Amino acid sequence: MRKTLLFFFSLVLSLSINAQRISIQGNSFVCNGEKIFFVGTNTPWDNWNDFGGNFNPQFWADEFAKLEKNGINSSRIWISCDAAGQPFVDVEGVTHPATQQFWDNLDYLMNLATKHKIYVIATISSFDNLDETKPASKNWMALLNCTQKLQQYCDTFLKPLIERYKDNPYFFAIDICNEPEWMHEHKKYGKMEWDFMQMFVGMCAAAIHSYNTQVLVTVGSASVKWSCDKFEGNKWSDAILQDITMNPLAYLDFWQIHYYEWTNQFGNPFHETPEHWGLDDKPCIIGETPANNKIYGFPISYDEIYSLPYSLGYDGVYPWTSNGAGTGDFGTLKNFGDAAKRMSQQVNNSKSKK
Q1: 237: exposed, middle or buried (C-beta count within 10 Å: 0-12, 13-18, 19+)?
Q2: Helix or strand or coil: residue 68?
Q3: pLDDT of 12 over the 50 cut
Q4: Most exposed residue of 134, 170, 237, 281, measured as fewest CB within 10 angstroms of its CB?
Q5: Which CATH number fits domain 48-352: 3.40.140.10, 1.20.1510.10, 3.20.20.80, 3.20.10.10?
Q6: Which residues contact residue 137 at a Cβ distance below 8 angstroms, ignoring those fewer than 6 apart?
Q7: pLDDT-derived band of residue 18, with 50, 70 and 90 as boundaries?
Q8: What is the mean pLDDT of the chain?
């Protein structure tokens, strides 16, 4: 009898977890058999390199409660902000295991995510890793210049990360790098050839896909300019990543483009569909966009920040930021929170009518 009960409770728990798991069908995100739209936000950091650093549990607890209250179902969070963050890469480009404090902090965050039903996109690096004004940037340069050290990074950091959270459906996706294009465009951030970033992204994607996980993979592209074939070519296409790594597992599960006023010269995802960019073969989200509607370069209401992409076929929108992180007046949850709540209600109402 006891074994029967244990099996029953185990089955119920398994079904409950699987019911919350995000998967992909065609070019849409699906949860429990239904399409899901991410009424998202960025909560990138509180104190910069929070995890394993100056982590404030009360901030994150309060912030996640606010997100849930405002109908937000996903947040993009930088679990490593620059070369001084976890995991530590030494001057030889060798990756050292993340500290116990890092894992404790991330465990706390993921417990909050589960409690509040917030799907986390975990950003594991950024162009900031090569910021030449910071001493440890040279360490990351050494890492990116050697495929053996890249593989060691995957084995030492990515594998334990996946193993620890692969059964938590709210550890939804890994964003391999925030706006990696700036590592090519600017001397301050390395002025590297595309091959080096593509190898990094490709090897990380292949590693994650090899770890028997349902965690999805993306890259936070600074602009659609570098994520479609209309301009300089899609730098993160399956073909490019697989060709450079010679690995069929090197691919992104969904597209992620960022929008700010300067990108209007390449078009506008609030007016153009994913199909227009040739990005309709996978789910496509707007992973960053101002939370302040006064700095879009065109008239847009807070409701339209979510509703326009929704109507055009995008799969989520993530205003920058919920908590005012970073520099500049890009807005906070106070700006778009009510609109997020209305959008969440609209999406839920549309599901109930089906």
Answers
A1: middle
A2: helix
A3: no
A4: 281
A5: 3.20.20.80
A6: 82, 83, 129, 130, 131, 190
A7: low
A8: 94
